[in-house]
């Protein structure tokens, strides 16, 4: 797919309705969530978290990218178009409304290498509770989060272990998690992937290097920097820098 320049219009016509676009692609923003930071960025014609996207695109190499917390797919076009010929993008989003929007974003951009799942990542398979709406019934969008007890705006969503979804022979270059406090469970569910491929870890608001090295002994991860709210880790001696 040919990328559009930043000078392009922030809106593209899809059918009879204009859709926001930026240098990476075109997006389906869910109605009512236009005020969220990611939505505001793409609606104004710029990428959300541009430094994170540039880093991931530059370091994907010849491997796959795992991207959890897709929201409406604001990362999908940028990541998909950066992958090597036979590499794959694995995307996960537990919020049903967000997932539907992400699917539409992928379809609008004709992303052929994206495998999308309406599921949360965890260290077990089954269902977990996820709050998708506030107490007034309004969608939380990217602020959806995991909870321990049922209640208003809470629904059961499918949970998956990455080790059982992504074939172990798929080389994984980057594991990026924006999973609202569920990072430990998601990484435990990717134990074999992380140990085999030692991917770059891009973890939103997860600055726990000691926990990573305690649970993945011998890999020698180090924190190489921070991009927006994301802590970035790579194995020692990888030569990767920010």
List the helices and strands and how they pair.
Blueprint: E1 11-14, E2 17-20, H1 37-43, H2 50-59, E3 64-68, H3 76-80, E4 89-92, H4 96-108, E5 114-117, E6 120-121, E7 126-131, E8 145-146, E9 154-160, H5 162-165, E10 172-177, H6 183-188, H7 191-197, E11 200-204, H8 209-215, E12 221-227, E13 230-235
Parallel strand pairs: 3-4, 3-10, 4-5, 6-9, 10-11
Antiparallel strand pairs: 1-2, 7-8, 7-9, 11-13, 12-13
Description:
By secondary structure, the chain is of the alpha/beta class. The chain has a single domain, classed as Vaccinia Virus protein VP39 (Rossmann fold). It is 24% helix and 26% strand. It has 8 helices and 13 strands. The protein has helices spanning 37-43, 50-59, 76-80, 96-108, 162-165, 183-188, 191-197, 209-215; strands at 11-14, 17-20, 64-68, 89-92, 114-117, 120-121, 126-131, 145-146, 154-160, 172-177, 200-204, 221-227, 230-235. The strands form 3 sheets. It has a 7-stranded mixed sheet, with helices on both faces. A 4-stranded mixed sheet has the order 6-9-7-8. The chain starts with 10 loop residues before the first strand and ends in a 7-residue tail after the last strand.
Keywords, please?
single chain, 242 residues, alpha/beta, Rossmann fold, seven-stranded mixed sheet, 13 strands, 24% helix
CATH H-level superfamily title? Vaccinia Virus protein VP39
Instruction: State the helix count.
Output: 8
For the biggest sheet, the summary is: 7 strands, mixed
* Low-confidence sequence ranges: 1-9
**CATH hierarchy class name:** Alpha Beta
Q: What's the rounded overall pLDDT mean?
A: 89
Radius of gyration: 17 Å
**How many discrete structural domains?**
1
From the spread of the alpha carbons, the general shape counts as: globular
The portion of residues forming beta strands comes to: 25-35%
Overall SS class: alpha/beta
Note the quaternary state here: single chain
The counted number of beta strands is 13
Protein name: FkbM family methyltransferase
Region (Disordered): 1-25
Domain Methyltransferase FkbM: 83-206
Biased composition (Polar residues): 1-16
């Amino acid at each position: 797919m040919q990328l559009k320049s930043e000078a392009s219009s922030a809106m593209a016509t899809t059918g009879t309705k204009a859709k926001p676009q930026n240098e990476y692609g075109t997006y389906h923003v869910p109605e009512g969530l236009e005020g969220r930071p990611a939505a505001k960025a793409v609606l104004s014609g710029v990428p959300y978290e541009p430094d994170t996207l540039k880093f991931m695109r530059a370091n994907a190499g010849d491997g796959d990218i795992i991207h959890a917390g897709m929201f409406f797919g604001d990362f999908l076009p940028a990541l998909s178009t950066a992958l090597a010929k036979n590499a794959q993008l694995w995307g996960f989003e537990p919020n049903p409304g967000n997932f539907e929007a992400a699917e539409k974003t992928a379809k609008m951009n004709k992303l052929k290498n994206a495998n999308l799942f309406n599921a949360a990542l965890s260290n077990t398979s089954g269902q977990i509770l996820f709050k998708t709406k506030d107490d007034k019934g309004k969608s939380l969008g990217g602020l959806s989060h995991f909870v321990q007890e049922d209640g208003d705006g809470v629904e059961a969503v499918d949970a998956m272990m990455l080790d059982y979804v992504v074939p172990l022979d798929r080389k994984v270059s980057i594991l990026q998690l924006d999973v609202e406090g569920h990072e430990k469970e998601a990484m435990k569910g990717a134990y074999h992937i992380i140990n085999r491929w030692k991917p770059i870890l891009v973890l939103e608001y997860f600055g726990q290097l000691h926990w990573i090295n305690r649970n993945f002994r011998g890999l020698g991860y180090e924190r190489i920097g921070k991009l927006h709210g994301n802590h970035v880790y790579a194995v020692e001696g990888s030569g990767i820098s920010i």
